Amino acid sequence: MKKIDTNIEGAYILEPKIFGDHRGYFMETYSQSVFEVLGLPSVFVQDNESFTSQKGTLRGIHFQKDPMAQSKIVRVSRGAVMDLTIDLRKGSPTYFKWQLVELSDENKRMLYIPRGCGHGFLSLTTDVQFCYKVDAPYSKEHDRTIRFDDPALGVEWGIENPILSEKDLRAPLYQDSDCNFAWHG
Known about the structure:
Elements: E1 2-5, E2 12-15, E3 18-21, E4 24-27, H1 32-38, E5 46-52, E6 58-64, E7 72-78, E8 80-87, E9 98-104, E10 110-113, E11 117-123, E12 128-134, E13 143-145, H2 166-169
């Protein structure tokens, strides 16, 4: 597996080795020993999957606040998304920086998103199957969302009227949220 730096401290694009022939392909999406060699957290406690039926659906910006923050490995097993990572760790050298990376069933790229970052994605195709591993369990009490179009964040999604859930429509601006992340070096 190849680890590629991004513009966010501690976030990485992961490119798995693909072994293919006339029958199809095989790839390893997670290996504890490989993650240890790459210097990434290697213990994950929950796998999740979402399905998005419509192109132009935006999910995010989501996170779990401390003490239940989550690191994530995300990938797309069907379709394509524009995936967002935004650094919400006060004091971080990349605080408020964001990146958009295309993840698809064709490029097979994955992202490692560290604790303290917000996450979201915009579906670029219909019928998107999105998979992610997390290193802390879901906690409804700590689950948070901030506005996808918060002007203070300045994320350029490339869409004017995305399809949103009620939760995302009602999300507060960052300045009105109780996001409590701090950079710990």
